[in-house]
Design brief:
Blueprint (H helix, E strand, L loop, with lengths): L10 H8 L5 E7 L2 E10 L8 E6 L2 E7 L11 E2 L5 E9 L1 H6 L21 H37 L5 H6 L3 H4 L6 H28 L6 H40 L11 H8 L4 E2 L22 E4 L21 E4 L8
Parallel strand pairs: 3-6
Antiparallel strand pairs: 1-2, 2-6, 3-4, 5-6, 7-8, 8-9
Length: 339
């Protein structure tokens, strides 16, 4: 009751008009037991963010945060009218009533599957999370579209190595958070690309193992599909390799030119570009050397020393007690350096 205008406000009617009317109630089944999930959209000022609430005997017991678990779900999303909201999903059911502990602080159910076949906590959480995703998909569609366009543009213009990943594994785009910086996006794509290439190698090994099977038609189809994917992966790596070499040669050209003070760069700058100083091949991975600038065949060495004194080299390589040093000292079988 408002003292000024004596207007009577029925809270239940207000709840039904502003909250319940914008939601939906859906029955679901988990391991043969029935549950109910009530989808609600509430104002962002509610404060707890997107959550799933698990209830027993019509009272809240525990909740689970949804941000980070569902793709494209930002801290605040908008409805069809452009109004921001956060999602609240309330889960109830007889099984939850039966398994709540006496203190009403948690549910007594196993995390993983058991011999009895009852619902598990992880199984229930996965099922209601998927139901929440289905309900929220129309509201996150814009975020999903903008994110995918941004990733594809990034791959097209800055990271062509990941083109096969985006083409053959478009599902991974959902797993990448939105609004990442270019550096963090590159790290996310690199992580997924490692998994993708590992799977591709395993697929190749399985294909080789099945060569002696009888089903030639199926083998030919699998081989052609694999080869297409494998070749695309190689082409993407080659494109990235060529771009890297082109950029390296530009840096070398700039290092060999006069600067604004009409002076040349120090020898150290050129040396560092070809191979890090005062290091050996035990210290530096091959992909951090640019020996190809001098000769491609130099990559096939078993020991390299860059600006290291003779007396500091391995005894089984060089036995000279001298502080003299060479710019580059490279050892390998002579056969590696002839046509």
């Amino acid at each position: 009751m408002d003292d000024e205008d004596q207007e009577k406000i029925i809270l239940m009617d207000l709840f039904k008009a502003q909250v319940e009317a914008q939601g939906a109630s859906v029955p679901i089944d988990v391991s043969g037991r029935g549950f109910q999930i009530h989808h609600l959209r509430v104002r962002p000022t509610y404060g707890e963010g997107h959550r799933l609430y698990f209830c027993a005997d019509k009272r809240l017991v525990t909740s689970e945060k949804l941000e980070g678990k569902l793709p494209n779900l930002e801290s605040s999303i908008k409805d069809a009218e452009g109004k921001p909201f956060v999602y609240s999903g309330y889960v109830s059911g007889d099984f939850l009533d039966e398994t709540v502990n006496p203190e009403r602080t948690e549910f007594v159910m196993p995390d993983e599957n058991t011999a009895f076949g009852d619902p598990t906590w992880n199984g229930l959480l996965a099922r209601v999370s998927q139901e929440a995703k289905t309900y929220l998909d129309p509201f996150t569609a814009t975020v999903k579209q903008e994110k995918e366009e941004r990733i594809k543009e990034f791959v097209r213009t800055k990271a062509p190595t990941y083109r096969p990943l985006v083409k053959h594994r478009p599902d991974i785009l959902d797993a990448i958070p939105s609004n990442l910086s270019d550096d963090r996006l590159d790290l996310e794509l690199y992580r997924h690309n490692q998994d993708y290439e590992r799977g591709l190698r395993e697929k190749g090994e399985q294909l080789v193992a099945s060569i002696h099977k009888d089903n030639d038609g199926e083998l030919t189809y699998s081989y052609n599909a694999f080869l297409e994917e494998w070749n695309e992966s190689g082409i993407a790596k080659l494109a990235n390799h060529v771009a890297y070499r082109k950029a390296t040669l530009k840096i070398l050209k700039a290092s060999l030119s006069l600067n604004k003070q009409a002076k040349y760069s120090l020898e150290e700058a050129v040396h560092q570009l070809i191979c890090p100083l005062r290091k050996t091949s035990d210290d530096v991975p091959s992909d951090q050397m640019n020996l190809w600038i001098i000769d491609e065949k130099l990559a096939y060495h078993f020991y390299l020393a860059s600006d290291v004194p003779f007396k500091s080299l391995k005894n089984d390589i060089v036995q000279v007690d001298s502080a003299d040093r060479t710019d580059l000292l490279i050892f390998n079988s002579a056969a590696a350096f002839v046509e």
